[in-house]
Amino acid sequence: MSPSRVSRSRLQSVKHNTPFEAIARVDRRTKNLVQRVGPGEIAVIDHEDLDRTAAEGLVRAKVGAVVNASCFISGRYPNMGALLVASAGILMVDSCGSSVMSIPEGSVVRVAQGVVYLDGKPIAHGQVQELDTLEEQLSLAKRSIGDELEKFAENTLEYMNQERDLILEGVKMPSTRIRFEGRHVLIVVRGYDYLQDLQTLGSYARDFKPIIIGVDGGADALIECGHVPDIIIGDFDSVSDKALKYGAELIVHGYDDGRAPGADRLEQLGLGFVVFQAKGTSEDIAMLLAHELGAELIVAVGSHASLVEFLDKGRAGMASTFLTRLRVGPILVDAKGVNKLYEVRVRKGDLAMLVGAALVAMIVSILISQLFRLFLHGRWLEFTDFWDRLIG
Question: Which of 77-81, 110-114, 160-164, 195-199 has the lowest average pLDDT?
């Protein structure tokens, strides 16, 4: 272990052994909690295998502590969310049990050495997690990835037959005000690095003016980056009221059993919508919508593709996504990681050449200017006059 690692570990241990007291915000759904928890407050969650997107939300909210009824890392697969929270210096306590979920919203809670106190009484005992302990758990989880991959593949094949209508049969499209024929479509999902990738695609959006679709919370990401979504599609469980009222067309994801989870919320807000009944995830049906309505190109930001991403989302297989991508085919461009591809780095040599070129341009402009030529002619006349007097 390096000296810096030792120092970091000791500092974190000292901090996390100090009692921490703050207002608690409680929710079983972390993505809902991050929308209302404030800086320095305690986030009380029940989230086994904390995913990266939820972790980034907790870090952005600047919470003071996270108390988890479940474990941050179960060992099924190497999820990185817990390490992101720990790296931000946030106190983390997990395996507290279901009793912590009974904490009243807004009450003051005290956490000391893994014990959670309410009104001075201990209500739960958990395990304080630090970077070192989480990294050890993550290392062990990496050994289980082979088993999870095998189960994931089996589940994908099992559900492939049930969801085959995504590619083999026609899916009834909802009516939209926007015409898709021959246009580019930008679909934004709140997945890994979605904000950075979306910011990198700013010039693309300005130049091509694509139809912009926000999938649930992706609509808020679009607004944050200065874009206005044309369509918002999904279950509407993680998108803000502000985004819903921007005037976009609203399409609720409906399921085969007749459920349309987002419809009730939109009705309560008095907003019009249509239902798109189809199997798969909301990002899948967003791609199907664009494809079937004649889009020339689909650019996807934040979409889920890797094993860890699917497991983070709680999905045991990827049948619908696999079938959707087969159907959409060559018009799909996955922009995941594009911010790393186009990361701008200025080399010292390039900077020196730029400065040198600017200096040369300045010198040349001065040399060819009329004023400079008159100045030189005057100095030459003075010199010749002086020389004539000297030799005369």
Answer: 160-164
pLDDT digits (tens, 9 = 90+) for 196-218: 888 888 888 888 999 999 999 89
> Which residues, including other chains, have CB under 8 Å from residue 12's CB and lie 6 or more apart?
86, 89, 130, 131
Per-residue pLDDT of 278-287, as tens digits, reads: 887 888 889 9
Strand partners for 297: 184
How far apart (Å, rounded) are the C-alpha atoms in residues 9 and 128?
13
Please give the structure tokens belonging to residue 144.
């289980």
Residue carrying structure tokens 């010199």: 383
- Find where tokens 């402009």 sit: 365
Domains belonging to the chain, first-starting first, are: 3-141 (3.20.19.10), 163-341 (no CATH), 350-391 (no CATH)
R_g of the chain computed on alpha carbons: 29
Q: Which residues contact 269 (CB under 8 A, 6 or more apart)?
A: 241, 244, 245
Which pLDDT value is given to residue 35?
Answer: 86
Task: Give the E-state strand segments of the chain in sequence order.
Answer: 20-26, 42-45, 65-68, 91-94, 108-112, 115-118, 121-125, 127-129, 184-189, 211-215, 231-234, 249-254, 274-277, 297-301, 332-334
Give dist(CA 170, CA 338) in Å, integer. Answer: 33
How confident is the prediction for the chain on average, in pLDDT?
Answer: 82
